[in-house]
Amino acid sequence: MKINYKYIPIYISVILVIGIFIGGSLQFFNQNDFLVTNSSKAKLNQLIDFIDNEYVDDLDTDSIVDNTVDTILAQLDPHSVYIPPSEQLEVAENMKGDFVGIGVRFYVFKDTVAIIQSIENGPSAKAGIKPGDRILYADGTKLFGRKLPTDSLFTKLKGKEGSKVVLTVYRKSEKRNITFTIKRGVVPLKSVDVGLMLNSTTAYIKINRFAETTYKEFKSNLTQLKNQGAKSLVIDLRDNGGGYMEEAIAIADELLSDKNLIVFTKNKKGRVDKTFATKKGDFESGRLFILINENSASASEILAGAVQDNDRGTIVGRRSFGKGLVQREMDFNDGSAVRLTVARYYTPTGRSIQKPYVKGAEHYFKESELRFRNGELYDKDSIKIADTLKFKTPKGRIVYGGGGIVPDVFVPIEFENADEATAYLMESGILGNFVFEQLDKNRNIFKDLSFEQFLNKMNATDLYFNLFEKFISKHVNGIRLEQSKSVVKRYINAEFAKQLYDEKAYYDIVLKEDVMLKKVLHKK
């Protein structure tokens, strides 16, 4: 498949829509509070019954209901959505923070399920599954040569906790088949990618979404980093589409002093609910920086807004997405669910950062794409802000509402000499596929290398850069990598490090030349 690079911002917008859909600010809700009582609701139910019982042709009334629900919700706001049963389990699992399975990252390579990595301490790792192994059969079901969809593969590998699955695996390095009996277990889905020290006193924590376990993960990383000497903290919320607002609030509580207002919500009846920080914070002093960009949304904006409005830290990056609506998720008996917007949230100074959605969902989500065109991602002066939406923090700083969090320190989108299309490409799945295929040819060339030896080996050659150029020409049109060579090589090295070592090794490489972090460390 050929992809024209000029459309990459559009692809990113699509990915963002999916991320925001999964990661809205959520609260729990009791569906029994909604009872069918008035005549309009009764009429809708009666119509479905008429069609089901009397219509001349056989119809799937379930699909009619689903379409009706979608049509109704489309009249509301872009974040009030219906989730069919086929998607609800995956969405809920993603937000739960773990799942039951065998614990592997895999890649369907030439119609075969190839293992990229076994998750550390997971069922497969304990059983002895190795990177490069091919899963041929699961409980006797053939998995290779069938072009099975990903959800079918997941069905074969997932199951109840403690249940067993018998895998027949081809180990390429030994040229033989091996049978493994694996007991399925709980496998974590990390929402905190990494916590590490940037230097002797500055810690860095990357949060990819706000799931049920995010605060616990954050707290664990923060404790470890403080024990390593952290006096300053950088929290990276770039490309974080949000999630459970309670998790963002709990993290804000670790950063803010007692009785600081974190956020407040207001519903249609005018009820205001305020949430304040408590005495328990573990990082209420020390320099604090929050990194955001145009894809930081919802719960990410709650956290960034709380820090900014309380004069607690510095917001660095580009204007955030602009989602200030709160959803509650209500389950139906058939396994589907609806997420309904039930309130707006406001930052401590009283700002609503919700951007307009009167022109419909399509225009709403494409607004991020428009920021590429109007120059906002390159020049802070291109940000359009209404003077009527100015607010003041306790120390008198001016902050703005009406469409995202405007950073205190603006950092344009730039990756040295790379354009944004190349930069986004480096963070896409296609690079991971390339690296897997290279490792699969001969893993032994990296065997027993220390991380330092690995870096020296990679930096001493252009071999993989040249191979990636050839690889990418088969999949993507119009991108010339030579002008971005240093960036491309860095991301290639990082992906190799992730697959050979771990997530921390990946970030150890990519963060060294990160433009926003350079701004933070220089500011210090």
Summary keywords:
single chain; 524 residues; alpha/beta; 3 domains; six-stranded antiparallel beta sheet; 37% helix; PDZ_sf; membrane; S41 family peptidase
- Which fold name fills CATH's third level, the topology of the largest domain? 2-enoyl-CoA Hydratase, Chain A, domain 1
Derived from helix and strand composition plus strand pairing, the structural class reads alpha/beta
CATH architectural name of the largest domain: Alpha-Beta Complex
Major sheet: 6 strands, mixed
Q: Percent helix among the residues?
A: 25-40%
Domains (count)? 3
Low-confidence stretches: 1-18, 28-36
> Taking Cα atoms only, what radius of gyration do you get, to the nearest Å?
25 Å
Number of strands: 24
What is the CATH homology-level superfamily of the largest domain?
A: 2-enoyl-CoA Hydratase, Chain A, domain 1
**Name of the CATH first level of the largest domain:** Alpha Beta
Strand content: 15-25%
Q: Round the mean pLDDT to the nearest integer and report it.
A: 86
